Amino acid sequence: MFNNILINQYYSFKVTYKKYHSVPFLEFYKKITGETISEQYFEILKKRHPHIGHINDDRLQCTLQILHKFGITPEEACQHLHVFSMNPITMDNYGEILKECGFVTISPPHIIKYHTLARSRTIAQLKKEGFLSQDVILEQNVLDKLKDWPDSDKILHNFPDSRSSILMVRTSVLERYLFWKLSISTNEFQKCCKNYLPLKHKPMSDIQEAINIALNEIKFDIAGVRRNGFIICADPLHTKLLLENIKTLAGMDIREVIKMEPAILKNNYNSVLQIRDILEEYRISHEAQRRCLKVYCMRPDTIRQRLEEFKNSKEFQILSTNPRVLYMVIHKNKMMARLKKIETANKQCYSLNHLVSSNKVFNTYISSFGAKVCSRDIAVLITSSLTNLSRDAKCTELKDVLLKKLRRHKYWLHVAVNVIDENIQFLRQKFRDESILDNCHILLYPVTEVEHYINALLNLREGKRRQETFAYDLHYSNVRCASLTDDQILSLVLYEIEKKYHFSGDGIWTKQEGNKVDTLSSK
Questions:
Q1: Helices (runs of H) and strands (runs of E) counted in the chain
Q2: What is the C-alpha separation between 210 and 178, in angstroms, rounded?
Q3: Under 8 Å CB-to-CB from 239, ≥6 apart: which residues?
Q4: How far is CA 387 from the centre of its chain?
Q5: pLDDT at 106
Q6: How far apart are CA 17 and CA 108, in angstroms?
Q7: What is the pLDDT of residue 473?
Q8: Cβ(133)–Cβ(102) under 8 Å?
Q9: Separation between Cα atoms, residue 329 and residue 325, nearest integer Å
Q10: Name one GO cellular component term (predicted).
Q11: In this structure, what are the phi and psi dihedrals at residue 484, rounded to the nearest 5 degrees?
C-alpha cells in the first residue's frame, strides 16, 4: 500500500469524517451521500465486493487520492463501489494507461472495465463511443511517453484502428522499447510477459522509470535486468522509498541487498520495514538474514506467525543459532512434513540440511540405511553455543579447530543434534567453554551417561564418596582426585564411558533404543 506521507506530498485532496460505526467505509458513505447502509444491505454488498468490509482508513484515503488524480469525485466513486475493492496500485496503473492512451475522460466504469476496454474493444470502437478523439493516433501517444527513446529510433507500425486494440498496440511498442533499451529478444519478451503478468498492464512511464532506477541507482547490469522481469515491473515509487529511507538491510547497503535478491522489489516499502522490525524483535542475526534475503519477499504477518509457532518447537530452538535458520521460516510447511517423515522412519539424526534440502537429497536420506547429520550443522550448533569462545576467536577458525577434533571420532556424524545440544546445556553449567572444546567428543554421548560420570568424578574431586560413585566402579585410589582439573575430569568421563567398548566409539548408542547393540561388553 502507498505510504500515506508520500501520497500527501503528491495529492492534496483528502476526505475527513467522524466515526460512527466500526466500519470506516460505512462512515465514509454516509458522510458523502447522506444515506445510511443497513446491515442487511451491507451483507449483500460484501458478497458483491468481498473486500469492502475490510477497508481501513488508510486504504480508503489512498483510493480516494488516486481517483482524485483522474478527476473522479467521492460522489462518483460512491456510485461505483467496486473501485473500493480494487488494489490501489492496480487501479492507479489502469487509470494511468488510459490517460497515456489519450482517453477524453476517465471515470470509475472505465477503470473497473479496463480489461474490456484494453483487450476486447478495437480502437475504432473506442473512438466511436467517444472514449478517444477521432484524430488521436494511439501508437504515437504511447511512443511519446517513452522520453529516453530517441525519436529517430521510433517507427510507427500504423496499426489499423478497425483491427487493433489498446493492448495490441501497447504490447508492440513495449517489445520494441525493451529491445532497444535492454536487447530483449522476441522470445525473451514473450516469456517475460508470461511469467510476469502485470508487465503488459504497467504504464510506460513507470516501466521506463523502473529500468532507469535499476540501471543508474541500484547499478544492475543489463543482463541482470533481463534475467529478472519483476525489475521491469517494479513500482518506481516503492523502489524510491526503499532506496531513500532504508539505508541498510541485514547489515548491508540496501542497493547490494536488492542486487542479491531482486525479488524484494516485488514487496512494498511498508512490508519490508515491518519484516526488518520483526526479525529484530525475534533477534534474528544479520548473518542469518544475509543467508536468506528471500525472507524480505514474504508477507510480514506470515513471518510473525511462523516465528511465533516456532518458539515452542524443540527443533527450532536447537537450530535457532544456525545462520540458515530463516530457511525454516520460508519452508515451514515442507519442514514440518519432513519432521513427521523422519519421526515415522525412526531416524534420530536430522539436521537443518535435511529439513530444507531438495526432495532428491531428502528422499535419499529417508530411504537409506542409518542416519547422518550434516557436519556444518554440528559445527554451527557447537560454536554458536560456546559463546565465550565465539567472542574471542574468529568463527571460521573456531569451526576448523572443532571439526578437526570431531573427525577423529568415526561415529561423529551419527549423533542427533538434540543430544549434542543437551550435553552443551548441561556441561556449560559446570565447565568453561575452553574445556568443553578441548574435550568436544564428550558431546556425542548420551547426556544421562555423561551426567552420571561427571557427577561421580566431581564428588571424588570434592571428597564426597557417595554410594552412586561406587556404582560405577571408579577406582582412583592412587590419584589425587582433589587436584583434577576440568579438562582431566572430562577426559576421564570419556574414558569411563568408552572403556567397556574397547574404545571403539560404540558408546554413543548405549542409551538410544533401536540402534547399535552392546555386543563388545557382553563378551
A1: 33, 2
A2: 12
A3: 210, 213, 265
A4: 27
A5: 95
A6: 22
A7: 52
A8: yes
A9: 7
A10: mitochondrial matrix
A11: -65, 135
Measure the CA–CA gap between 290 and 249, rounded to whole angstroms: 9
Q: What is the DSSP letter of 345?
A: T
- How far apart CA 181 and CA 257 sit, in angstroms, is 24
How far is Cα of residue 520 from the mean position of the Cα atoms in its chain?
50
Q: Give 467-476's long-range contacts (Cβ < 8 A, gap of 24+).
A: 472/496
Q: Cα(16)–Cα(30) distance, rounded to whole angstroms? A: 12
Find out whether 233 and 194 touch, Cβ atoms under 8 Å: no
Region for 346 from its dihedrals, namely left if φ exceeds 0, alpha if ψ lies in -120 to 50, beta otherwise: left
| DSSP string computed for 143-154 | HHT-TTS-GGG-
Given this model, what pLDDT does residue 510 score? 56
Q: What is the pTM of this model?
A: 0.78
Output the DSSP codes for 350-388.
--HHHHHS-HHHHHHHHHSSS----HHHHHHHHHHH-HH
The alpha carbon dihedral of 315, 321, 327, 330 has a sign of positive
Which residue carries 522476441 as its cell?
186
Task: Convert the pLDDT of each residue in 451-500 to its tens digit.
Answer: 988 988 888 887 776 544 444 455 665 667 777 888 999 998 888 888 87
Query: Which is nearest to 104 in space by CA: 82, 135, 73, 77?
Result: 135
User: In this structure, what DSSP letter does residue 165 have?
Assistant: B
Q: For position 472, what pLDDT does the model report? A: 47
| Angle subtended by helix axes 166-182 and 204-212, to nearest 10 | 20
Q: What is the predicted pLDDT for the residue at 384?
A: 84
Q: Rg for the chain (alpha carbons), in Å?
A: 33
Alpha-carbon distances of 430 from 423, 438, 486, 491, rounded to whole Å? 11, 15, 9, 15
Rounded to the nearest angstrom, the gap between the alpha carbon of residue 223 and the centroid of all alpha carbons in its chain is 24
The DSSP 8-state label assigned to residue 413 in this structure reads: G
Residues of the chain with pLDDT under 70: 1-21, 369-371, 390-395, 465-479, 502-503, 509-523
Q: Tell me the per-residue pLDDT of 353-386, one tens digit each, with 9 for 90 and over.
A: 888 888 888 888 888 766 677 788 888 888 888 8
Pairs from 86-91 (Cβ < 8 Å, separation ≥ 24): 86/111, 86/112, 88/1, 88/2, 88/59, 88/62, 88/63, 89/2, 89/235, 90/201, 91/63, 91/66, 91/67
The three cell numbers locating residue 398: 573456531
Distance separating alpha carbons of residues 86 and 63, to the nearest angstrom: 9
- Residue 252 sits at φ, ψ, to 5 deg, of -120, 160
Phi, psi (rounded to 5 degrees) for 253: -60, 135
Residue 171 in contact with residue 131, Cβ under 8 Å?
Answer: no
